[in-house]
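Protein chain data
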Amino acid sequence: MASIDIRRPHSLSQSEAHAVIDKVAARMREKFEVKTQWLDGTLAFERPGISGKIAIGGDEIRVSAQLGMLFSPLKGMIEQEIRRKLDEHFA
């Protein structure tokens, strides 16, 4: 099982960062059939083969995920896409 742990600084307010993550989560649900749920300041997401969290800190966004056997070989590509989306929304 492969894991992903990416941290990205941000300068948005909590509510602005929350709104951005909500937008990203809606796209994840639509495109990848991911189930999401907010628990305090953390968005948990899950689908067969992938589970993880997007945590909003005061000055940092942290994405962590566990990839099952099917997705482990795609770890590099998945990390690249996460980094691209974080740059797009939090640069």
The mean pLDDT is 93.
